[in-house]
Amino acid sequence: MWTRQYRNRKRVRLIVPALAALFLAYFGFHVVHGSFGLRAKETFTAEKAKLEATLATEQARREALERRIALLRDGSIERDMLDEQARRALNYAGPRDVVILQ
């Protein structure tokens, strides 16, 4: 019967913990610096706040325009008032109009 005798090597016992440490270091690095890591989350949060501010201003602008349109639709404005507002918005004056600049 053949038997092999091996010397206990200390290096062999360190291979598995070293591989585990490398594995954890690799994923730990990408948790912080990766495309969806902690630093990217800060960037996404800042961009989200900026976009929400833009959204709020655009919604306010849209509501103001909708209010102005509602005034035109319900028949509360007369034709001459509509004509005056259109000329003011388009910066247009007829040849016989008197323009008073304020």
Features:
single chain; 102 residues; mainly alpha; 71% helix
Number of domains: 1
Beta percentage is under 5%
Number of strands: 0
Intertermini distance: 115 Å
Q: What would you note in describing this structure?
A:
The chain is an all-alpha fold and 102 residues long. The chain has one domain. It is built from three helices and no strands. It starts with 9 loop residues before the first helix and ends in a 12-residue tail after the last helix.
In a nutshell, what does this entry contain?
Helices cover 71% and strands 0% of the residues. It is built from three helices and no strands. The relative contact order is 0.04.
Fold blueprint:
Layout: H1 10-33, H2 38-73, H3 79-90
